[in-house]
Amino acid sequence: MDRVGNVSATVKLSHWIWEFPYTEGLAMRGQLVRASLLFSALLFVSTAVAAERIAWETNLDQAWDAAVAEQKPLLIFITRDKCKFCTKMKKTTLIDPRVVGQVGTRFVPLMLNSADEQRLVRDLKITSFPTTVVIATDKSVVQRIKGHVTAKDFEMRLAEAERRAETLERRALASNRRGAGKTR
């Protein structure tokens, strides 16, 4: 009975909206349609924006531990304060949906400020910003991307880095197998 009553109330409400005198009904219907479209658009955009962000690590040790545990290369994006090209890269390339998907599924992403990690910057011999460095789990640098690059170029360079990291891992596994076979 409750269910039927609720359906009737819904039907009566919809009839009430559509049975307004022509001019008043049009105005109200238009407002309802616009409000529902606006709400739907806002919901869609907020969901899309949340999905189009890279989940950056900010701690080098934690990121490295995750890379080793997940057997994924570590992608380090090194930026600096008041860097025009760093900002451009963050606002264009690093929010491109294809780049976000590629980085999020195939790498452990780490964003660092050069002022906070001066020793790492020196050890990696980084002289320009932004610089993206990809490090395989065997600690080999497999890619170094200097400056701002387009999303398409970034994707291609990351794909190459991933291939290099996989090749190094296969070689390490083969070497371990050969070494294990000799000790038997």
Description of the molecule:
The protein is α+β, with helices and mostly antiparallel strands. The protein has two domains: 2-51; 60-180, Glutaredoxin (3-Layer(aba) Sandwich). The chain has helices at residues 2-18, 22-51, 60-70, 84-91, 97-106, 118-123, 151-182, and strands spanning 74-79, 108-113, 131-135, 141-146. The protein has a four-stranded mixed beta sheet, with helices on both faces. Strand 3 (131-135) and strand 4 form a beta hairpin. Helix 5 (97-106) runs parallel beside helix 7 (151-182). The N and C termini lie far apart (79 Å).
Number of strands: 4
| Strands side by side in the biggest sheet | 2-1-3-4
Strand pairing plus helix content: what structural class?
A: alpha+beta
How many helices? The count is 7
CATH fold category name of the largest domain = Glutaredoxin
Mean pLDDT: 82
Task: Please bin the fraction of helical residues.
Answer: 55-70%
Using only C-alpha atoms, the radius of gyration works out to 27 Å
Distance between the termini: 79 Å
